[in-house]
Write a structure and sequence with these properties.
- The protein has 229 residues and is of the alpha+beta class.
- Helix content is 27%, strand content 35%.
- The protein has 6 helices and 12 strands.
- Strand 11 (216-220) and strand 12 form a beta hairpin.
- The longest helix is centred in the middle third of the chain and has 16 residues, at 98-113.
């Protein structure tokens, strides 16, 4: 497969102050799941039909992280989150019900991040519903009312977590933590060995939660290394 690679300067880093975010990026209409999984192990991620690898000047702190699904053991606080959400029903589907998903996505983004282009219908579609690989939607409901939605990519040996949104009125449920555990559980039930959680960024509070899912592995010098913590 031949692709055209672009170097893109996105401006300020979304995770750490006084840093610049630069990526190597290409777009394709389709890509095999096995190739994408091998790319994840080289630091690539996906956003819509675009695949990108960080090449930020003087920084390599976006570290790929994954959780072994069959070895995961929830902490005491994570067990409390599971108990708190025992009334949540979870189902997985192919990419569908775009209109219903968009309403919760828009509510989440405008509440959490303010109104911007990412909350537009076109931006939502290109980000989460235009996918060149096998992407599924995980729906989280209480009594038939939608409280959260997660997107995951299905690769041969795991699930790759893409994005998660929730009803801001349900913040007390810790649905972000709950959804990660359900993704681990779902991957294990599918016979998958890994949940790929994207990047862990030391020094970034909003990304530090990923180390709470134990044990885990970090990609260091091109190889996955075990951590128990």
């Amino acid at each position: 497969m031949r692709v055209q690679l672009f170097r893109i300067n996105h401006g300020d880093c979304p995770y750490l102050p006084d840093r610049t975010w630069v990526t190597h990026t290409f777009q394709v209409g389709s890509l095999s799941e096995s190739l994408y999984e091998s790319m994840i192990s080289q630091g690539w991620r996906r956003s819509g039909t675009a695949f990108y690898q960080n090449h930020c000047p003087g920084c390599n702190l976006c570290i790929p992280i994954r959780v072994p699904t069959h070895d995961f053991s929830p902490t005491k606080s994570q067990r409390r989150v599971l108990k708190k959400n025992s009334d949540v029903e979870v189902r997985m589907s192919p990419l569908e019900d775009e209109a219903e998903a968009y309403e919760l996505y828009r509510l989440y983004n405008t509440t959490r991040h303010g109104e911007d282009e990412t909350a537009s219908r076109a931006g939502f579609r290109s980000f989460l519903f235009d996918s060149p690989i096998d992407t599924r939607v995980m729906w989280y409901s209480v009594g038939g009312r939608l409280v959260g939605i997660g997107w995951v990519d299905v690769v041969p040996n795991g699930l790759s977590s893409v994005y998660f949104v929730f009803d801001p009125a349900e913040s007390a449920r810790s649905l972000g933590t709950f959804s990660a555990m359900k993704e681990i559980e779902t991957a294990a039930a599918m016979g998958k060995s890994w949940l790929y959680l994207g990047f862990y960024v030391p020094g970034c509070h909003k990304m530090s939660y990923k180390r709470r899912f134990r044990p885990f592995q970090l990609l260091e010098d091109g190889r996955w290394a075990d951590y128990e913590e």
